[in-house]
Structure formats: C-alpha cells, structure tokens
Amino acid sequence: MTYTSEKPEEDPERGLLIKSPVNYETDEKIEYASDHESEASTERLIPGPSFIIWTGINILSTVAIVFTNKSILTDPSFRNCQVSFAAYHFFVTGATLWAASRPWCGFFVPKSVAIIQMLPLAAAMGIQVILQNLGLAHSSVMFHQLARLLLTPVTALLNYLLYGAKIPRAATLPLILLCAGVGMVSYYDSLPTTDGKVTTSLLGIMFAFSGVGASAIYTVWIGHYHKKLEMSSMQLLLNQAPVSAGLLLCTIPWIETPPTVSFVPASTWALILMSGVFACLVNLSGFYIIDAAGPVSSTVIGQLKTCIIVGLGWASSRHVIMGQSVLGIFMALVGMSMYMNIVLRNQNISPSLVTEFTRFSEFAASANCQGNHNGSSTGSSVYCDSGYCNTLHKSSTQIIDGFEEIKPGGTTGYLALDKTNKYIVLTFRGTVSAENRNADLDFQQVDVSTICDGCKVHHGFWAASEGAMNVLLPKVEETLRANPDYSIILTGHSLGGALATLGAVTLRNSGHTVDLYSFGAPSVGNKAFAEFITKSTAGKNYRITHTNDEVPKVLFRSSRRRPLDSLVPEYSQSSPEYWITSPNGVSATRSTIQVIEGVNNEAGNLGTTEVTMEPHGWYMGDMSVCAQTWKDWEESSAYYNLGSHRRSVTTSSPEAQLWFNRGFLWAYSFNHDEAVRCFERATKHDPKCAMAFWGIAYAVGPNYNKAWHFFDMADRQHTVKKANEALTRAIELASNATPVERDLIKALTARFPPSDNIPSDMGPLNHAYADAMRPVYHAYSRDVDVAALFGDALMCISPRGLWDLDTGKPTGDHTVEAQKVIESAMAQGIEGRDHPAHCHLYIHLMEMSPMPERALPASDRLRRLVPDAAHMLHMPTHIDMAVGDYRRAVDSNEEAIIADDKYFNRDRGSALYVAYRVHNICAKLYAAFISGRFEESLSAAKKLEQIIDINVLTSTSPPMADWTESFLGNLAHVYVRFGRWEDILNLELPADRAVYCATTANILYARGVAFSALGRLAEAEAAQKQFEAARATVPPSRLNSIPVKEVDVLKVGSEMLSGELEYRKGNYEVAFAHLRQAIELEDALPYSDPPPWMQPVRHALGGLLLEQNRVEEAEQVFREDLGLAKDFPRRKARLNNVWGLHGLHECLVRLGKLEEALSIQVQRDIAVGSADVPITTSCYCRLSAVGKAETCCSSHI
Known about the structure:
Elements lengths: L5 E6 L4 E8 L4 E2 L19 H26 L7 H19 L14 H23 L3 H8 L2 H13 L5 H21 L12 H28 L3 H23 L10 H27 L2 H23 L5 H23 L5 H16 L3 H4 L16 H4 L3 E10 L4 E8 L4 E6 L5 H8 L3 E3 L8 E3 H24 L4 E7 L1 H15 L4 E6 L7 H9 L5 E6 L4 H8 L18 E4 L12 E4 L33 H6 L18 H15 L3 H14 L4 H11 L12 H21 L5 H10 L14 H17 L4 H12 L17 H14 L2 H5 L2 H12 L8 H10 L4 H5 L1 H7 L3 H19 L6 H20 L3 H14 L2 H4 L6 H5 L5 H8 L3 H5 L11 H17 L3 H15 L7 E3 L2 E2 H20 L2 H17 L12 H11 L3 H12 L15 H13 L3 H16 L13 H4 L11
Parallel strand pairs: 6-9, 9-10, 10-11, 11-12
Antiparallel strand pairs: 1-2, 2-3, 4-5, 5-6, 7-8, 12-13, 14-15
Helix pairs in contact: 1-3, 1-9, 1-10, 2-3, 2-8, 2-9, 3-7, 3-8, 4-10, 5-7, 6-11, 10-11, 15-16, 16-17, 21-22, 21-23, 22-23, 23-24, 23-25, 25-26, 26-27, 27-28, 27-30, 28-30, 30-31, 30-33, 31-33, 33-34, 34-35, 35-36, 36-39, 39-41, 41-42, 41-43, 42-43, 43-44, 44-45, 45-46, 45-47, 46-47, ...
C-alpha cells in the first residue's frame, strides 16, 4: 500500500478545505484534525498535454496497483505475509519520497526529525496499513474500495467527539447516505453467489472496518504531529515510511512464516515487482497532479478513480450483483460526491464574514482621518469617505473618544460605538508620524512571560501598546458598563493591526471577550506568542493579509535570512490567516479569500517572494481613501513642520501664498526639487503670481552644493530651459508685483544663459547673478530675505571654497562681503537672528574658516527653526564637528535621519535628495567613528547599504553612482577603525565590480590592512595587488564627497596600505615614509565634512611610532591631529577626538611632561566617556597595545 501526495478535505470546524495525504491505491483521504502545509493551496490551471499524460498514468497505475495487490494477497503463499508486504511498500514509498525531495526533482523540501519521535506514529501507521491489506485479502476489490469511503465520516466523528469539531449541517445527509450505501454492500456482498462462493468474507468485513477505524485514529493523531514538528505531509511521510518499514521487519520473524521461495510462481514475483513500480508511478504522478493542478482538480480525479475501481471490481467478480448491492453502490458514490461538492463549495468564508471584514477594514481605514481622533471628535459619527465606506455608513456610529500621539510610540486612533450592530470598536491608526516610525524600527524583543510562557514581543509595539492601553483600558471598560450587551472589537491596519493585537491581549487578560480584526499587520512576537494568540479562546482572531504585501512578512522573513537574522530576532505569524488573493483595485470576495491554517504557514502571504508595498494599501477596498487625501494633508496643519518663517508675496490666493512659503523654506533647506513642486503648486492656485514663477527658476538653478559644473549636459539643458520659461512668465506678470519682487525677478535672469546658447563655462554667470543682486540688496538692506538671497549669491561664486585651509584667509572679496551681509542681517533683531537661511548660510560660510566657533549661536538656533527639514537639522553638526563636539553631532544627525525617513517614506524624494540623505548618515557615522562609538558607526554604515541600492545607482541624470556609490565603502572603514579584522575578511566583494568600483577598492584596502595586522603577509600582498587593480578601475567622475574625487582619496589608501604592510615586514623606515606620504595626500584633499578619508592617517602613524618608542615624533603627530601644533592649519585638525587625545596623553606621560599630561587627561577622560569600546591606542594596527589580532570587541575589553 502506497502513501503519497495530498487531496483537499474538509476542516469540520470551519467547513473549509485543508490538504491531506492520499492513499491513491484505494483513493482514501487521510484527514487531519488540523493541518498546516507549506505548499500553495490555490487551484492552478491545467497545463495541457503533460498534465493529461500524468493524469492518465496516475489513474492507470492506481487501478493497476489495487488489482495487482489483490492478486498477490490472494496467492496462498502470500496470504499470511501482510506485514512483509506492507514493509515492502513502505520502503518503496520512502524511496519515492526521497527522490521527490531531491533538488533535481523538487516536489518538496525535506525536513528531518529524530527517529525516536517517529516511533509511535510509525507503529500506528504500520498497524492501520496491515489491517487495510488484510481487508483487501479477504474481500472483493469493489467492497474494499467502498469501505474505505467510511474513513471520511469516521474521522469527522472522532474530531467531533475529541475536539468538538462540528460537521457542516449540509454534509450530514450525504454522509448518512454514504454509510447506508456501504452498509448495504457489506451485507449483500458477503452473501454466497449462485456458485456458492463468498467474495467478501465476514473476516474481510471485520478487517476492512477495523482498518477504517485505525486509519481514522491515526489521521486524527497525525494532525498533532504536523503541528508539533512543523512538517508537511510529504515531509512527515518521508520520515515515517522507513521507520515503519524497519519496525515491521523486526516483527516478521515472530508473527509470519515466510513463503517457500520455490513454491512461489515466477508470475507472483513479477506481480510484486510490478506493485513496486506501480507504487512509484502513483506517488510521482500524484505529486505532479497536486503541484500542477491543485487540490480541487486532484479530488475530482480521485473520485473518478473510485468509480473506475468499483466498476472494474464488479466486472472482475464475474457474478451478477444483486439489486440491493447496486443500490448500495449508487448510494455510497452519490453520498461521497455530494459530500465533496459541499466541501468544495464551503471552502470559502461565509458572506457574513466577508461583510464583517469589509466593515472593520472601513473602521481601520477611518483611523487615518484626523477628524476621528482629534479633540473635537467625541460624540460625532465616524467620518469616512462616502465613496468607500458603504458598510460603515449603513451603521449608526458614535465616537466615544479620539486619541492622538499617546507616548511612547505616538499611538493614534479612536474608540467608537457601532449602535446598529452593537459593537464597541477600538481602532488604531497605522504608521504616519515620526514616533510611529520609531516604534516600528524598535524591533528588538521584550520578554512577556507573564502573559504566556516563552513569549517575546516587538519592543516598540509593546511599549506603544502599554502606553496606550493604560489610557484606553478604563475607557473601554466604562463604555462596556454603559453598553453591557455590546461586543468588543479591536481593529487596525499595518502598525494599527499590531497594536490591536496587543490591545486584545490586554483586554482578554482583564477578563473580556474580544474579537480581533487586523489588516496587513506585521509580526508582533515570537513563535510562542503567535501560538498563544492562535489558541486564544477569549474571542476570535482574524488576521487578514493581501497577496504579497510586504508588511506582514518583513519581520518573519528578516529573522530567517542572512545577514538580517543576526540583527532581527525570531518573529512568527499567528493562525489562521485570511489571505486576500484578488489584485489591487479589485474588491475581495468569498472566492478570493483563502483561509491558511497554521502558525507560519507559507501557503499564503508568508510564502510570497516579491518585495512590494502596493498591496499594503488595498484591503477589502482602498485603505487610503478614508484617510485625508494627499491634497488634504498638504493643505492641512499636518503638513511638514517647516517652522514659522513667512514672506508675503503678491497674490490673491491664500493657497498660493501657503505654497510659496513652503517652497521658499524648502529652497532655504536645500530640498530644491520639493521647493520646485511647491512653487508649481502655488502657480496652480494663482496663475498670476509672479513670485511663484520666480521661485521655480530660483529653486531649479544652481546652489551652494550643486554648482553649475555638477550639472551634466542633459540636466543643464533641462534646467536652463525650465528656468527661462518660468522667468519669462514671471516677467510677464511683474507689472502687478511689488518693486522688490520685480527687482528680484530681474536679477535672477542674470543667472541663466539663453536656452539656445549654453556656454561650457557657466562660472561667469555666478558673478553676474551676484552683481545683479548687489543693488537689490543695497536698495532693500533691511529685507531679511533679500539679504539671504544676496549672501547666497556671493557664496555661490566659489562654493565650498570660501577659505584657504592652509592660510586661514578668505579666498576672495566675495567671502568677506558675504560674511558682512549675513552678520549684518542677523543683527537686525529676532527676525534676522532666527532667519533659517541666515543661520544655514552662516554655518556654510564659517565651517571652513579658522574660527568656526563663531557660528555656534547660529547652529544652536537652527536646530529648532525648521523641524521637519532634515538638512537643517543636520547643518549644525558641521560646526559641532569643527569644534570637537562629536556627541552632539551624533544626536543631531540622528534627528536629521529620522526627518529624512519621514520624508522618504512618503515616496516623494528625488534622486538628488538621496545624496543629502546619505550625507546625513555619513555625518553621523563619522561623528560616532571619531568618538569611539562602534555600534552607532556600524548601524549608520548598515543604513547606507539599505538606502544606496541598485535603483539609486542606476540613475544616470543626475549620475547617482558617481555621487553616492563610494559611501558604501564606509562599512569597511568602520571595521578597520575598530580593528574588526575577521569581520573585514568576511565582507563579500560586490558581484558588479563596475558599478561598485569604489566599494570594491575600499573592501580590498581593508583586507590588506586586516591580513597585515593578522600577520598573514602573503595574503596581504595579494590583497594589495587586488586593491591597486581595483583602484585603477575607479573613474575620475566618481566622487567621494562634494567636491572630492574618489581617485584622489584612494591614493591615501594606497600609501597607508603600503605603510601597514611594510611595517609588518619590519621595514619601519619605509613604512613611516609611506604613512607620511599618505598624510601629505590626506592634507591636500579638498575640504569636505565629514572628511573624505575617514580614519586619520596620523592615528596609525602616531600609534606605530609609539610602538617603536619614537615618542617625540609621535607627540608632534598627535599635536597636529588635535590642532595643538604651532602653525598647523586648524581646519585640518580633528579637535578633541578620543583617539588623538589618548595618543598625545601617552606621549606626554612617557616624556615626563606630567603637568600638560594632566590637562590632556581631563579632556581624554571626557572623550572616553562617550565611547562604547575601550580606547587603548590611537589605532588598532598597533598590536602591542591591544594584543595581536585583537579588536575593539576582543578579550582586552
């Protein structure tokens, strides 16, 4: 007897199809009390000729094996060899499953368990198979096949008796008809025929019915093994079959007498061999059918086989069947057909449940509407867009309480009554605010064993839920006391679904029955928690997902895939899952919602592989329709908080004024693409607003960070054309503008050449624009915006080159004039002092100067002036790092990163603004890097890898690979800085070395350093050669940072790597010469913040000089590094950095300069206080200070 693939069968508790393994020899269905499979359960289209061939093979081999086995078992020499025959077939089944699990076959993925776990199940399986074989040996094929149909009602009865699983009412009559039919056949088939023979003996009937009972018990039992071992039917059977065969073989000597081989005819041996062949064909063809056509089609095929076997069984009996037997056969087959038809019709959820899903999806979507959760919502009906919430609008609703931004986590939503259906509905909103996003990202887990044994949940979700439920639990209970006949419902979409899940746990633990409806919710906790939710009896759980929505699976998959599994703890999803399979824009119906049973069952959403967020917005309908539209949100106070600065322009439209102000502030904040969009929006509200068109031209043009020479030809042509068109329109409308507006429009025309005559050198245009703005400034010197625009024009004459780093002198009169203009403007009271552009520009103006501290007051003010503009939050850190305040630089850059996440999560960031986002992360990385904070450095480097993906790098205009790819090499530099040699060697080189050329070179540089530090010199030399080859492939267009070229930066790496390698060889003078040359190259690099070469070469040189006891030389190196050396340019120093302070303090102590050492020690200790690793040397390449091959995280900690 062979066991193979799966057929659909009813889950009596839900009236749904689940998949069960099938004995195709007798076409029986082995039902489970509850099962969760990993194979997809959706019905697939029949694929044509191949399917027809395999179906034919399956039918013929199934029929053939039944009659072959009957012939074998009726042979007198084999009649008492049931155990041997069963063992033989178990071996065949195991071998077939093994083949089917191989990669070259690929029907399923094998999973192994210990044999001891299989012993009880294998023994039970062997017993029920032997009973089936005995039944076949002592009865007719026709009766045996019909008797096996009893497995369905008997299993259903056992499930009812043991677990209370109810049989669908409509299925009762078919099952009674089936049992009655089998009973009639049992009686009349056991009567003697006209020739006096009995085709089915009483013993055969007893064996057959006993086999059915044993199979039913085995079937119910096996369901628990599926849950316990998390294995599919085929995985379980692959483990079972060999064990069952082994157990049976052990019993053969005690209970069977083997046949005398010489008495067994050759034809019988041939039949045995054929039986094995047929078993393989049944298995393989069964696998193919279930995989190609799905469970419903395979069920139809199974019913066809039953009819064929019964018919052939009657024909082969060679006797006339009594009329009563014919009637019994008819009743049994009709009963089974009716039953399966009911099962197939009931596999989808009920219409009423679809209605409930729709209702609560509308409640969940409505949580986006600000009017439902602000302070004025109490007492009003739940607001929802009338085009979507038809179900909700049919109900009488009343908001009991709206809540906003409950801390921590910023939890938002509302508590309402559905008076029509008598529901108390607590609804949570999904991710919108920065606090929501912080909660999402806090994915480490917290132990909640007080709720359930072994349970752990998402820390961010848990903290947010605790904070919210402390406020909401008393309100829910008060509402319930006032409405005792109402049911409690918790619902939410996305983050709201996660909060609803945890809120339901809180309410249930307080003694309440709660039904939970979550839509697109992420995983909330580990497997123990998912099982706890699944088994909850204090209410129903409906976890609804949609096709390949990324949110429900992101934590589940991240915790199981390298390298994320080292960062993300194990997450699981509860059961059941209601998986919507209809595409976006198509309403979900009964036929498009599948019920997926089992924790972490990958037959539904979890098994999808495409990464997309599109399905996340469609659950029973468009989840965003109920929210404020993007237009409403932009017009409302919920728009980005850009501060209080305003400039009145000539317009009759308040909306145009609003959008002009937003565009102006975005332009001041260097998000120029967003500024253009805002100015364009202003022109839609007022097509006659001249300053809105001026704004388009101003924002689309060059700026301090993107000078004309950074525009590629296509970009330049587009920009000039767009600017000239906007300025032409502004000039046409200028007659209605104020004098200052007309002057600003006229001055801006000097910035752009004619569209049909664009020069190759655009530099003179910068001078022309500044010259045009000068008289405007002198005419309106008290106008703070005019001062900002003129100062900006002056600075753009030599952007990022306003000061000579070596001499500390301004590079031209324009620098002096810009300083005077901006400082004069900031002296004009609070309006000038707190002007966001003045503060912003002054930081840029002074960061390269020898007195960057003069910009500290402006930096402090800017941190609060434009709260949602990430670049403005980042800008003060240029001064922070210039004065050595690295702790504050880390914190402010983190605030900028959060603001960037908020902005980019709305999918509206331009390709260019990605470079700004990356810059903020790099600034945080460097500030953490230079202050000894490994974890923050590493997390920043990892975030860069998440953002700079192939989609960013393939943008050609602007050329994002040239502007951002080199930042991906920072991870290698973090590992070098902190001596993580083995981590460096584990870094994988990019597959596409052309696109990732700088990354490749930096990784190879780091490998060379790591091999040198580990004393593996031959490998270090090989890595050096590879590095030099990779360095040669980096194009001159590739930037390390504006305006530094990566090819120049890698020259520093070349000398530094040579120095490291020569030092390990003992060639100290040669090594130090290379390192000094590296310092010269490093000092010659153009100014950039953070510095282009992340780890100062002086840290390596100073550390190695100390190791060779050349203390005086090391002292001079560290004084230069810290800006304490006479005549050394201050802006090339790294003030107060912990590595340099440690090195200088050691030098002073060893030289006996104890008084100065004490002074430096105070500064060093303060700096060490913020580090998260022990600072034992200025560079981990100095092995004598840290121990050979040790790192920041090795045993010296």
